[in-house]
Amino acid sequence: MDHDMVRIKGTRNGLVIVLDPSREFEEIKNNLLRKMESAKGFFKGAKFSLFQSQKDIPAHQQIELESICRQFGLVPNTEEPAALRSDLAVAPRTSPHADQGEAALMVRRSLRSGQKITCPSHVIVIGDVHPGAEVVSGGNILITGNCYGLVHAGAGGNRKARVIAQQLAPTVISIADRRYAPEGLGGHTPLRRQMALLTGQKIVFEQL
Amino acid sequence: MGEIIVVTSGKGGVGKTTSTANIGTGLATLGHKVALIDTDIGLRNLDVVLGLENRIVFDIVDVVNGSCRLRQALIRDKRLEGLHLLPAAQTKDKTAVNPDQMRELCAELKKEFDYVIIDCPAGIEQGFRNAIAGAEKAVVVTTPEVSAVRDADRIIGLLEAADLREPKLIINRIRPKMVRQGEMMSIEDIIDILAVDLLGIIPEDEMIVITTNRGEAVVLDQNSRSGQAYRNIVRRILGEDVPIINLDEEDGFFKKLKRIIGIK
Fold first, then answer.
1. Looking at the domain assignment, is residue A83 inside a domain?
2. Are A124 and A65 in the same domain?
3. Quick one: A56 and A128 in the same domain?
4. Is residue A99 part of a domain?
């Protein structure tokens, strides 16, 4: 059935193009192309993300499909895929082997003063973020050690982004467009295993 | 074949030159052949601290330019047989030497000396890059101040990026009384932030000022705490397991008295 191969859904996070995992890539590609052509620029300017249940789209295929969409004026969505998934009400995948999770950058060292990590996906730091170091992520930031530096989660505007650290005592913390700079050096006593998230217009800290 | 150690800090005035002079002197007193290189071209100090300023004929720039041979530029210390200094040029700037030339120079000195110790200028620019180019190990000097520790952290990051892993830390100018009163960062605080191994701590000591101004090294002074601290550092560099001195214990009146009359 033709219309099941590529479905275009509108969500509050933009368009989600859902691909049928059982079909061949070439078929999907041609189908997507036809749909875009028949839409006659209807989707122009819309944010989109590609989604395929059960298995992840291989990177080279993803790039090809994205470029087709781009030709028709669509803009790739940089927001967190988790939000899309919840919009689609997709059940978490059960098979541990098939589950690739969400893309995250693993930083396997402590970040020292003057070192900066910028990444559109989630960032996981195995170590500390020292004062003077910076982490900017489009998604969540998870620090296994202590966080004393400058952190910015949801840098693309993702208000659901969170920052989690063993000890959360950042110089400056930002989530989406909100910024919070704790007063004074070492002024607030950090709690163990904290999470920072956005509630309304405020960044709040919660103990895990 | 010797070992090449760079002494660096990022921030100025924390005691790089003093530490270089004392470590070098300490190693030489124990019979090792030591070459000290001052890479702070344009703002040389190591010669002054060692009291060798008036003996300078050629300098590091002359050596890399080929104006003289390395042996001609090396100044032998006035007291210690094994201690030599390759002074920096005062009338040039940091660009007068490049990292490749430094690597070559260090390799040559390494053949002849047991220890080559490089005194790095403050900052992270060319002077720093020159100083670390030929080094195999690094010693980072800091003081218990937030700004100095921050700069040390930056420097450690840059050293690691340059493949100088696991640098050792010297914390200089500790004032135990202030630490006890919570007015100064403690050794534990600093180690916690920097996450590196401690090579030694140096207490704040007037003797450093006195000896440095005289062109002598405090490491040769048997009665001062800072001298003892530098001797401990030297032994640790040589691979001995020497415990870090507990400054708290030594602060009491009777301890002071004992030190004055020479009982350890």
1. yes
2. no
3. no
4. no
Provide the number of structural domains found in chain A: 2
Last residue of a domain, one of A64, A90, A116: A90
Q: How far does A143 lie from chain B, in Å, by closest CA?
A: 15
CATH number for the domain spanning A64: value is 3.30.750.50
Q: Inter-chain contact B157–A114, Cβ cutoff 8 Å?
A: yes
Domain edge (last residue) among A90, A118, A139: A90
Handedness of CA B233, B239, B240, B245 (dihedral sign): positive
Residue numbers of B between 136 and 165 with CB closer than 8 Å to A: 146, 150-151, 153-154, 156-158, 160
Which of B153, B183, B188 should be substituted to probe chain A, the one whose Cβ sees the most A Cβ atoms within 10 Å?
Answer: B153
- Threshold 0.80, pTM exceeds: no
Q: What is the CATH number of domain B3-261?
A: 3.40.50.300
Residues 167-206 of B with CB under 8 A from A: 193, 195
Q: How far apart are CA A85 and CA A80, in angstroms?
A: 9
What was the pLDDT predicted at A90? 44
Query: Which residues on adjacent β-strands are paired with residue A175?
Result: A153, A178
Structure tokens at B58: 């050629």
Q: Do A113 and B146 touch (CB under 8 A)?
A: no
Q: Which of A112, A116, A134 to mutate to test the interface with B (most CBs of B within 10 A)?
A: A112
pLDDT averaged per 10 residues in sequence order, chain B, 264 residues: 95 97 98 98 96 95 96 95 97 95 97 98 96 97 96 96 95 95 93 95 96 95 95 97 81 62 62
A186 has a chain B CB within 8 A of its CB: no
CA angle, residues B175, B137, B160, in degrees to nearest 5? 90
Range of A26's domain? Answer: 2-90
Of B16, B17, B30, B2, the C-alpha closest to B236 is B30
Note the Cα A87 to chain centre separation in Å.
14
Residues of B in contact with A131 (CB under 8 A): 150, 153, 193
Each residue's pLDDT tens digit, A97-156: 545 688 899 999 999 999 999 999 999 999 999 999 999 999 999 999 999 999 999 999
Angstroms from A132 CA to nearest CA on chain B: 7
Chain B residues inside the 8 Å CB shell of A132: 150, 153-154
How would DSSP label each residue in B74-141? PEEPSS-TTEEEEPPPSSS-GGGS-HHHHHHHHHHHHHH-SEEEEEPPSSSSHHHHHHHHT-SEEEEE
Of A29-38, A51-60, B37-46, B73-82, give the lowest mean pLDDT range: A51-60
